[in-house]
């Protein structure tokens, strides 16, 4: 993948530690969108950190605009699977070694997490590669179809989509139920929409904002609410399954 552009940011405070983030790597199909922040999700970010299960460690080098990162996975290492990365053609060493028995025959999928950046991918569709492919490796697109595993397909039509709306007072257990229900039905790949879910994704180095946010908390809540409103607009155009987890109330006269 190539980082094409770091988009101008005007909606974040100057104290934001990392206004531009790109994290690339591999995850199981069952993982969430938060690359490197849960088990079986393995990422390498532009801050020069690798992460899995919310554990961040120094790795490789930092990268930014115009850099090209290659994500390599080697399944021919005996009882282990090795994942490594390259920056502009330079190999950065093995980042992860995972025992095959832990993966249980499940496929690893390319995964990217982006914040205020534009990126471009090459799975083998480009005639000219950014940099030469290391010996023994091949692009995913060049693998025989029989050696590929298809990811989970979403609903074919809006009529097949499912939307659950949580009802209840604050602290009644709505979020807990939503998270458990989504985990119990992984094939539906529920997208949970709510300020709590948004805040949980606004982590810094794997830590929730509540633990390391120095600014005004009410301002952060307002930003999360604005994000939720935008996500609801996007959700109306996407064929997915949703759980709407938000407190809805109106003051009485």
Automatic annotation (TrEMBL):
Record's keyword terms, sorted: Nucleus
Stated name of the protein: HNRL1 protein
SMART domains: SPRY (SM00449)
Record domain B30.2/SPRY: where: 1-128
Single GO molecular function: RNA binding
Listed SUPFAM superfamilies: Concanavalin A-like lectins/glucanases, P-loop containing nucleoside triphosphate hydrolases
Gene giving rise to this polypeptide: Hnrnpul1
Subcellular location: Nucleus
Cellular component terms per the entry's GO annotation: nucleus
InterPro entries found in the cross-reference section: B30.2/SPRY, B30.2/SPRY_sf, ConA-like_dom_sf, P-loop_NTPase, SPRY_dom, SPRY_hnRNP_U
Any one Gene Ontology BP term: alternative mRNA splicing, via spliceosome
Main location: nucleus
């Amino acid at each position: 993948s190539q980082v094409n552009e770091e988009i101008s940011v005007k909606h974040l405070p100057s104290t934001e530690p990392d206004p531009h983030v790109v994290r690339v790597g591999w995850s199981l199909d069952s993982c969430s969108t938060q690359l490197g922040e849960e088990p079986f999700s393995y990422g390498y970010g532009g801050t020069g950190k690798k992460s899995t299960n919310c554990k961040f460690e120094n790795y490789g080098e930092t990268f930014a605009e115009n850099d090209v990162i290659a994500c390599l996975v080697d399944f021919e290492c005996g009882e282990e699977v090795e994942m490594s990365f390259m920056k502009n053609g330079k190999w950065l060493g093995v980042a992860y070694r995972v025992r095959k028995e832990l993966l249980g025959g499940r496929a690893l999928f390319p995964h990217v997490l982006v914040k205020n950046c534009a990126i471009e991918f090459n799975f083998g569709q480009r005639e000219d590669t950014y940099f030469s492919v290391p010996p023994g490796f091949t692009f995913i697109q060049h693998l025989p179809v029989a050696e590929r595993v298809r990811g989970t397909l979403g609903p074919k039509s809006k009529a097949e989509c499912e939307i659950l709306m949580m009802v209840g007072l604050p602290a009644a257990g709505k979020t807990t139920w939503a998270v458990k229900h989504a985990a119990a039905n992984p094939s539906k790949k529920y997208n949970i929409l709510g300020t709590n879910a948004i805040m949980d994704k606004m982590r810094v180095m794997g830590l929730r904002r509540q633990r390391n946010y120095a600014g005004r908390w009410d301002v952060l809540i307002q930003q999360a609410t604005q994000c939720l409103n935008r996500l609801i607009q996007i959700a109306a155009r996407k064929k997915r399954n949703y759980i709407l987890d938000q407190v809805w109330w109106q003051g009485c006269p």
